[in-house]
Amino acid sequence: MQSRCLTIVAALAAVLCIATAPTRAQDFPARPVKLVVGFAAGGTTDFMARLLADRMREPLGQPVVVENRTGANGAIGAEFVAKAAPDGYTLYFTTAGVATVYPHLKPAPYDPLKDFVGVGRVAFNATMLVVNAALPVHSARELAALAREKPGKITVAITGLGSVSHLGAELFQSAAGVKLTEVPYRGAAPAMTDLIGGQLDSLFGDGPTVMAQIGAGKIRPIAATSHQRSEIFPDVPTFLEQGFADAVADQWAGVLAPAGTPAAVVAKLNAAIAAVMREPQVRTRLAQTGVVPGVDTPAEFATYLRDEYERWGRIIREKGIKAE
């Protein structure tokens, strides 16, 4: 009788273990996946995340639900995901600033390199140096020359101290050996208003911020901070092409998972992202907002994250840049 009871108990225990065991990588995903965004709904980051989440349902066979956890320049959402179970069901839609810049400016409740594993980049979002259409310059070289002729007279908007656009402005000034008058703004919208109105000379802004006004002819793009020319703005040369080798400030977005997430699960998620980014409709919708799709492997993303994190840390220390 005792032997029979022990057998029954063992059987029940086995069933319980099977029921509560983590989902095997080959069965992933067995339930909806959560994609956390550290910024408010309605912005460019949220738009990209929701476009991706909506289309990932097909290759994954499960819904991907976007959850906005805002605050502290994306740190609140990042911390939430860093502490989540490493099973692939809670992901973070990150930006360059959250992953490679902000932790160098303020104490962060997460370590971008230790607390996450890179799933893959999603898109690139070139930062452009634009000027008021009435300003008589058509290149970064010409702007630098004008700044030398009129020291302290040429203004540039800073839409958030420590932002990638701010760092781009700092890199350009250093590489060109000029000093622009930096005008702080709380966001790109009021800065764009002043740029169009002639109260401001120049602005570093991402594709979605500057695209409409470039098309309307109210502002002129004169340089891109990316390594290569943007597909959206193919006629705009990079700073590199214009002789400013140290003025690279890539904007990008990507997906992170908690450290310890199985490699097979990460690979499945990466494949789903890549499939979505190949869809013509998705590429068209992104292009309409000034964003270029681009997916790499988890290994490539890990290398890129480490290199960019170290590069921005060095730049921020050397230039003594502080957050607001």
What strand order characterises the main sheet? 2-1-3-10-4-11
Instruction: Count helical runs.
Output: 11
Major sheet: 6 strands, mixed
What average pLDDT do the residues reach?
Answer: 89
CATH class of the largest domain equals Alpha Beta
Radius of gyration: 23 Å
| CATH architecture annotation of the largest domain | 3-Layer(aba) Sandwich
CATH-assigned fold name of the largest domain: D-Maltodextrin-Binding Protein, domain 2
| β-strand amount | 15-25%
Q: What's the helical proportion of residues?
A: 40-55%
| Class per helix and strand makeup | alpha/beta
Which sequence of SSEs, written as H and E, runs from N to C? HEHEHEHEEHEHEHEHEEHHEH
Tell me the span between the first and last alpha carbons: 73 Å
Would you count the extended β strands for me?
Answer: 11
Shape: globular
Would you identify the CATH H-level superfamily of the largest domain? Bordetella uptake gene, domain 1
Low-confidence stretches: 5-23
- Counted up, domains total 2
